[in-house]
Design goal:
The chain is an alpha+beta fold. It has 18 helices and 14 strands. The protein has 2 domains: about 25-170, Nuclear Transport Factor 2, Chain: A; about 180-495, Beta-lactamase.
Length: about 500
């Protein structure tokens, strides 16, 4: 089974409350602890869902794909609750298995009702299983029953308790045939909204764009969600190079920088510390929002501006870089009048004044973070070429002594299983309601062979694929991942 980007995918029917889900990103950050989608989105069901006449896949043993003992044990316990003759879960067992934040939002009675309903389609057969790589603690399984297959996603917190649980119909569908980049453009139209594809060659710290979606202005910035965290990482690496910040420095978690999930740091005690290195790893690999805001505070807007300029990005459009906490407030806490002023603000100074007036408290109900707000300018807007430039700059920074951790940080979560022949894969994605952006930097054995044996050769270059989708409606992310994965395979094959 290929690894799904970010674990939980948006668009599910909310059964209770708020909070955490693994990676990416803010659309998933407010995915409640227990979610059950009872049917596929109408369009997805018609175009991409597996048919019940198809030959079922062979059963797999979750133990072969989930090496972490605690994650496997909790996954097998949930699978046991789905058996035809199962009951519960009982209150005492639920208190032991589920995180307190989970049980604050989902009562034991609700749990019993939901699992009883799921057992109505039993027996289930596990036909694929995978564990998230890097620091994420998420298992993703496909379950076959008499009805449409389900994807189950389970995440653990730092205490080995279940922090989130998601069941969704499998709308991933068959991969499209991609033999040219216009083929990918065509396949993406299935998602609705508007999608932009940018492909680039990276060498010596620069990106040369080789393809952009036809009919779209290549200079138009799209909402990109947490892909902007590449910029934050670049600013951290710059600060490390200048000696203003060290990877071993400790950052203190305080209420004024604690954001909403995704991530794990928002659940740590006030006053606890995290190193710059750990925060950067969490920011990139599981899109930890509190880690991001800690790093933005540590480097400051001045350093961010310098990184924007060095990477060749548009400072007038991008600056100041809002924290994730501020994006949540702008999008779903303050009055629409504030969003109107934000949308009309044409210069950084105007946006700085709006951010300065935001409430001190972060008070965003989970149910609110389902409405797209990118049309009001609430997001981080980047062009595909700018994202490619950020990948290029980061790889260049990684060649310096101070920037060496960058390369490992970017590859901790490759997003999707690297295609054959790929020797290195960096990834950062982002999503908010109505927005999905995925970016990959690949090096293949071809680039490595070009420099083997030549001591004067530049470091091997790579290629970048950026896909940005914006929509007034929820995006079927499962189907999007299948389509983009086919594009990633095409990227790895070489020019074309």
């Amino acid at each position: 089974m290929r690894r799904l980007v970010g674990g939980a995918l948006a668009g599910a029917l909310v059964l209770a409350g708020c909070t955490q889900e693994y990676d990416d990103d803010m659309a998933m950050t407010t995915t409640p602890p227990l979610v059950l989608e009872t049917s596929a989105p109408e369009e997805a069901a018609a175009t991409s869902a597996p048919t019940t006449d198809a030959q079922p896949a062979e059963p797999v043993d979750p133990a072969t794909a989930i090496p972490e003992e605690e994650l496997l044990e909790q996954t097998e316990w949930v699978l046991g609750l789905l058996e035809e003759d199962a009951t519960g879960p009982a209150a005492e067992e639920s208190a032991r298995r589920f995180a307190p934040t989970f049980l604050e939002e989902v009562s034991v009675i609700q749990l019993g009702t939901i699992f009883a309903g799921l057992r109505g389609s039993a027996p289930y057969t596990v036909t694929s299983a995978a564990q998230s790589e890097g620091v994420g603690r998420t298992a993703t399984l496909t379950l076959h029953a008499a009805d449409q297959p389900l994807v189950m996603t389970l995440s653990l917190d730092e205490n080995d308790q279940i922090a989130s649980l998601l069941f969704q119909p499998d709308t991933s569908g068959e991969a499209p045939q991609i033999s040219s980049w216009p083929d990918l453009d065509e396949a993406l139209t299935e998602l609705g909204g508007q999608s932009q594809v940018v492909v680039g060659d990276v060498r010596d710290g620069t990106c040369e764009v080789t393809y952009t979606t036809r009919g779209l202005d290549p200079g138009e910035a799209f909402p990109s969600g947490s892909v902007v965290k590449l910029l934050v990482l670049a600013a951290v690496a710059d600060a490390a190079q200048e000696g203003d910040l060290a990877w071993e420095d400790e950052l203190t978690i305080t209420p004024d920088v604690t954001s909403l999930p995704s991530g794990v740091l928002q659940d740590r005690e006030d006053g606890s510390t995290v190193t710059v290195r750990e925060a950067a790893e969490l920011m990139i690999s599981i899109s930890d929002n509190t880690a991001t805001d800690l790093l933005i505070e540590a480097v400051g807007q001045g350093a961010l501006r310098e990184s924007v300029t060095t990477a060749g990005l548009d400072t007038t459009r991008i600056m100041p870089v809002p924290t994730t906490r501020q994006i949540f407030q702008l999008g779903w806490q303050v009055d629409s009048e504030v969003r109107d002023r934000w949308a009309e603000a044409a210069v950084p100074e105007s946006r700085e004044a709006i951010l300065a007036d935001l409430p001190e408290e972060l008070d965003v109900p989970a149910a609110a973070v389902t409405v797209p707000v990118w049309e009001s300018g609430v997001d981080w807007f980047l062009t595909g070429a700018e994202i490619c430039s950020l990948h290029a700059r980061l790889q260049q920074q990684a060649t310096s002594g101070a920037g060496e951790p960058v390369r490992e940080i970017l590859a901790t979560n490759p997003g999707l299983t690297p295609p054959d022949g790929v020797t290195y894969q960096a990834f950062k994605g982002g999503s908010v309601p109505g927005v999905l952006a995925l970016s990959f930097y690949l090096e293949t054995s071809r680039e490595t062979e070009e420099t083997d044996g030549d001591p004067d050769a530049s470091p091997p270059g790579g290629v970048v694929l950026v896909v940005q989708t914006r929509s007034e409606e929820a995006i079927d992310q499962m189907r999007a991942v299948t389509i983009i994965e086919a594009g990633l395979q095409h990227l790895a094959q070489g020019p074309g």
